[in-house]
User: Fold these one by one.
Assistant:
Number 1:
Amino acid sequence: MRVLQINSVCGIGSTGRIATDLHQVLIEHGHESYIAYGRGKPQNCENAVKIGTKYNTYHDVITTRLFDNHGFGSRKATIELIHKIDEINPDVIHLHNLHGYYINIEILFDYLKKINKRVIWTLHDCWPFTGHCSHFELVGCHKWKTGCYRCPQKSYYPSSYFLDNSQRNYERKKRAFTGLKNLTIVTPSKWLSELAKKSFLSEYDVLVINNGIDLNVFKPTQSDVRKKLGVENKFVILGVASVWGERKGFDCFLRLAEVLNDDQIIVLVGLTEKQISNLPANIIGISRTNNVTELSEIYSMADVFLNPTLEDNFPTVNLEALACGVPVLTFNTGGSAECIDEDVGKITSEHTLLTDILTSRHYDRSKCREKALNYDKRNQYMRYIELYERGN
């Protein structure tokens, strides 16, 4: 079997690592695997196919900022990709993030409708069925159900400085993305699955395959991280994100810091240098790390993991914390709470946060690790291979 994945990045970021992890599992099982990507340098894939050029990306960014037409540029790059797809002649085409300034969705889907190929599309956010945004939970917008217009998040990714083209974008996406035979939608969370079923993508089968993690890497790990950070005698509340902002709950941590006891401290991973320089004394900031062993050590030294995200799909940071034996507190937003039960954590809120942090001392860390065993990435990716083979 020959599989081609298409994603904005290859081997970097959460979706890029999902693509390369799946690539490795395919190779191990004797299949041919390729990843076509739009930006950055590819990692962990010997059969990576670049889509377009830096000029193409810059041009898409500019036109998006000016005209709010994200996903409708990159004509030349997409035509060249189609020629490459013809050369590879895959049995399965697996789509991931199609936003990201690198591809023309109308040209791509016109092509997919003309060829007899099995197509899988993993939705990592809500962008495929909105007229502009990738998430809408924070602002409580429901226009995507019937047709977007006057987008309240025009200035958010993929941001437009001037025009609001959300109504036209919605109609163009609906025409492009519907009517494709042999397409299956996959979502990492039940939450996103239910949204997709209420959108114009409801004509397709929608399956849930949770994200997975490497349990050989993320595991209870002894280290001297507490000593290095100077928190040996503190109750450590940990937060981890690739980018910290309002939507990830950064402001919640700042408010929490104002009411903590002297024996409690917050450690945040993934902050910028500017954010670190402005932290209160009881928050320790660590810049982003791509060293997963170091990250496993940081998780393992924490007493509780707090994920106050306001918008998320199925965050792997929750799984990583559990795999390292750390109980998780999270808000009931998106799919963040789907991996949490009463044995390993709690769905919390800002009103109950202090109480829930105190009671988190009583969780059995071995049960947290046991819960994480359900999300072994190899088991999850084998479900994709079974899905590929179903259409052969």
Number 2:
Amino acid sequence: MTTAERAVAPAEARAPAAASSPASFWLFAAHLWTVFGLALSNLLLGLAVLAVPASWIGRRGAARPALARLGGRAPALLGALAIYIVLLAVSVAASLDPGRSARALTELFNLAVLPLALVAVRGERDARRVVDGVILVAALSGLFGLAQFFFGYGDIDQRIRASFSHYMTFSGVLLVADCLLLAQIAAGRASWGRRGAWRWIALAAINLALLGSYTRSAWVGLAVALVLLVLVRSPRWLLALPVAGLLFVLLAPAPVLDRARSIVDLQHHSNVDRLSMARAGVAMIADRPVVGLGPEMVKTLYPRYRVESAVRDEVPHLHDTFLHLAAERGLPSLAAYLALMAVAAAGAWGRFRREGGFAGPRGDLQLGALLALVGFNVAGLFEHNWGDTEVQRLVLFVLALPFVIGGPEAPQAAPPPRPAERSSRR
């Protein structure tokens, strides 16, 4: 055991007794496992928010061990979240319509998922329970979505969505779960025995449903995550990607192929509309680069910024997480969002390498978090997925995942002895 591991181990040993009660963990986990029904998920999240502080009542300093076990990067993650929240409040106050923008403050309830995860999920075993539950729920949702092909769903105008309100929400949940699952399979955790075979079934259900959703942003995010996985696992397998692409062209149904081709067709009406939204978004940012137009104002003011090439007169958002955040809340808010993602991704990759990659005990969880963040943000270039409540909840948990599973931090030099300590040795 390294020096860093020995330093973390005592804090981890104390954390379960002081950090939170079992009830807080199960409530937290259940709210993620029920994102397919947002009302129930909201109820469980609210109860989890109440359960964690209740478990500390009467325990002086109970929060200290919970924070100590998280490692050195966790304060940076919480700091980025705090800045993001402050800038949200600033953008509401400076909005062109503060009354309308104040509705965005409901996001604070969702953002509670991140700090709650840091104290409610108390180590590798808890984290694996949550991750496996998310994958299982995504697989069952995928099977539900596939069943909808027999009930009038399936074409581009009536896409499968399982129990979710929108097909993009459905595909966003599938994408995050798929990345976590792919890392498990690459680490060899999916055997054909009773305990591992379900992951192969889940892989088939999730990916078939993802294809059937016709959601191009999720497809692109998954493709980039797969390339990253191959680079990490075995770079020589990159040579097999053209073969895989050829098999896809030969075997994929015609509607899926047509949808895939449209990704690179700049004359496709959907792509023309997205490029028009991007031009409008840049103009919005140029007008108010620091505080943005105000939350909830992009939809209202889009007709004012709409360019002639736009297909639609009105849009709910700019179909780009980064542009939408900058236009709505300003460039500093975008920077805070990027900092959140960067700190978590760096934490996941750093711990993955220090623990020996896939040979380490938690390599699949660390790389799974990294793949999920990469896939989610690549998809966010073509869809405002951060604004999707159900997907955002899963991503907030993934942001916390590298820190709650334990493992060594980067070795730090010991501080020099204080003058008083030197004199006492003489």
Number 3:
Amino acid sequence: MRLAIDASNLRSGGGVTHLVELLSAAEPDAHGISRVVVWSGRKTLAQLPVRPWLDLVHEPMLDGPLPVRCWWQASKLERLARASCDVLFVPGGSYGGNFRPFVVMSRNLLPFEKAERDRYGWSWMRAKLTVLQTLQSRTFRKANGTVFLSRYARDVVSRAAGLDGRQPIIPHGVGECFFRPPRPQDGLGHYSERRPFRLLYVSTVDVYKHQWHVVDAVGRLRRRGLPVALDLIGAAQPQALARLETAIRDVDPDGTCVRYLGSVPHSDLASHYHRADGLVFASSCENMPNILLEAMAAGLPIACAARGPMPEILGDAGVYFDDPERPDDIARTLDAWLQDPIGREGHASSAYRRARQYSWKRCASETLSFLTRVAASEQVRASGARPRPSRPREAFGA
């Protein structure tokens, strides 16, 4: 069996990380797959592993802007797939061609949550998300299978796109570089203005991430005399960055306790987790919160918003604030959490053990297993035999 992967729209971030880790951990021969071909641009292909069963094919059009990449997918992908594979995997989430069987992955939840789209007002971004909802809904309904990363995401997208809710849930893994056993947790008396309890918030600065509300909450804690500081990491959307910078100036005009460090290479993130004392995560829209997984693996105590799939992933191994848009709610939760070193230590240990369940090897195995089942079902259908009904096996914690 031959597998092809359309990586035409995987250029950076979590999509590329997923593909790199998937191919690095994959054992295709265990699933009856003899060859895997990946079509992508030069930059993405350069990050992928070299394997004897893997063909990395550079398509020059895929180095171009989005309209050119879409034209490649519309004009060339179907012909290439018919010549190269028995099943096509499209992790980017959109495909309008007629090759079958194909499997897609749902990676972006923003197009499917209206309240989150509306945060962008009358803007190009909101229009783009609305178009994506239409295109991806059509793709998901047409696909032979859709891989979801969390139960929450599957439920939301299935309702919005009119799916039957029987698609598999295959969460991402977390890299070994992030794992570090939890440290003993000290009481607040151990910390001071010179050595504060250092919170970390890693995420893209955007309207649904609410970093400015976290900054406000940290300011409230400091006014109560709590020795706490905050580091923020992530690429930024311009309008959201302006709001964050205003909040930082209001809370910490001297720049001593709240720092925005900008974007950091993924390879350097583990060291930032390992230097932090705790993680705060205030996003209100996530598909699969990789940040939580990384912080769990790093042995950090975690406080996060009780939104989306966060309780599904973190479980009872952290503390939650109900409303990430209310700084007083965030501050109240953080205050109680900081005053409870025993609770922090227990949660960090539980989170670390929970993170061990999320491996890239398991993700790769379950993904390839599902792809081969889809291909086999299509072969049976094409031969005219009656297929045996089966429900795709869900991943753990789904």
